[in-house]
Amino acid sequence: MKKLSRGILSICVSGVVLLSACGHTDAPDRTTIREATDESSPNTNQAPSTQEEQTNSISASTDAISDSEQLIDPAHKQIKEITADDFKQGVFIDFDQYKQSFFDDEIISKFKGNIEAVVENNPEKFKENLNKDSAATNKYHFYYTSESEEGQEFMFYDLDIIEKININKREQIRVGVRFAQKSPDGRVDNTGITYFFTKNQDGEWGIENID
Hints:
Elements: H1 2-23, H2 33-40, H3 51-64, E1 65-70, E2 90-91, H4 105-119, H5 123-126, H6 139-143, E3 153-167, E4 170-182, E5 188-199, E6 205-210
Parallel strand pairs: 2-3
Antiparallel strand pairs: 1-3, 3-4, 4-5, 5-6
């Protein structure tokens, strides 16, 4: 009887030691329940994004541009692509059909003079109606010439953007023009570019940028 009791006691002690060893493993990749809970819990110290902040952000972006006036709706403007058979070097834009409101003789004359300078390959004439320190000063060589392809020809044939906007209380006129560019090998590429007009310190309109 005593031998049986000792045997049972020995088994119980062995079981307790075994359970204790399992509960205190030193395996480095083991994650306790508390650690797992802490990792999945949200950081309560982080300030949540509020609807008010989002609304203020949207309001700030819309306040930057106001008083927009469009003379051409780009979404409904149909532009013809110029092929090699259609190509003629020069400016072939009917400005009279677009002439109204802010798109007057002054803007048309300065814009037309600039693109005529491109056709004539005349960098000095190109600069005539640029504002002082205009970002468009070097755009002639950037957009209209290529050192690797001399003898390119240009055909300006239509407008696809005419709008006047107010950005941070400063007026700006945008004129988008479509043109075809003919390479010496006869390849014709159609593309578009936008002119940005602003007033200088004397209150006169000039080309601020081309992009």
